[in-house]
Amino acid sequence: MTDTTQIAPHSGQWDTVIHQFKQTGQVLAALVLIYGIFFVLSPPFRSIDTFLSIFTQASILAVLASGTTVVLISGGLDLSVGSIFAVVGVVVGILLVEWQVPVIVAIIAGLATGAFCGALNGFVQVTTKVPAFIVTLGGLTAYKGVAELLGSGRDLSRFPESYQMLGSGYVMPISIMFGAALLIGLFLTRTQLGNHAYAIGGNEEVARLSGVNVARSRIKYYMIGGLMAGLAAILEVSKLNFAQSSRGQSYELFAIAAVVIGGTSLFGGRGGVGKTIIGMLIIQTIYVGLAYLGVGTSIQRIAIGLIIILAVWWDVWQRGTR
């Protein structure tokens, strides 16, 4: 979905669709190639349990990254989603353990908390005009402090079985991941607000002159980013059966990495959530594959870092050739 598609959906639409399929195919081919390499090199990697485990382990961060995709397409940046993740986890834990509210109420409250934190980031950014990097970097620290204050001295564990079912096994986490990706994909491609994300990210001034309320739209995009961080936190707390303020650290970096590896531009105006899911699966496949080969975590991080740099370089090169 390029700028042209979003501003003039009937101009060269089939060419754009074909281009998007080719881009998605390239990222998917990279995933298949990486998986195939580890499949050949490591016999234990070949089990169906390993295959499903990769999807399950990727699901939580993929949900978070789907919201980050929206923010980056619109030309924004949110470094605070990991800390929002921690706040939501602690809030849900308190509601379930200490207040003993119904599970559905705790989930709704958690989602609302994430959406509020994200919207607050957007509101501060558009009203102060401070760069998003600085605003959300401050949010990263501030929300982390909020999570620590709320979670200090509390034993937030042993949740109701109906809540634990959300993150247990393979089916629910993977289903929620694909469900979230579908909703975000439909939002980006089938709603006016989603179309405006591409227009704003492609050229904010042109979008403004075309009648788009850029400030209001940006707040909503950050709200969606926070909402998906909240959903990811709800999944992880359910899976682990405990909540801690220390959870979520560096999750924003993994989310951005998945988005960039998937082909969404750091400069805005281009990308899609489907490729973000594939990007997260690439990251998780590399981590699991290297672990099976006995490679230490430090080397794993170096490998992911190099891939991120390569993905950003590729994005810059592609923009320069247009």
Please explain how this structure is put together.
The chain is an all-alpha fold and 322 residues long. It has a domain at 60-248. Helices cover 77% and strands 0% of the residues. It has 14 helices and no strands. Helix 3 (48-73) runs antiparallel to helix 11 and helix 8 packs across helix 9 (192-202). The chain is globular and about 55 Å long.
Radius of gyration: 19 Å
> How confident overall, as mean pLDDT?
91
Strand percentage: under 5%
Instruction: Tell me about the largest β-sheet.
Output: none
Which bin fits the share of residues in helices?
A: over 70%
- Shape designation: globular
Number of strands: 0
Ranges where pLDDT stays below 50 over 5 or more residues in a row are 1-13
Structural class: mainly alpha
List the helices and strands in order: HHHHHHHHHHHHHH
Number of continuous helical runs: 14
Question: Termini distance?
Answer: 16 Å
Secondary structure elements and pairings:
Layout: H1 3-7, H2 13-41, H3 48-73, H4 81-97, H5 103-128, H6 132-151, H7 161-164, H8 171-190, H9 192-202, H10 204-209, H11 214-240, H12 251-261, H13 273-292, H14 297-321
List keywords for this structure.
single chain, 322 residues, mainly alpha, 14 helices, disordered N terminus
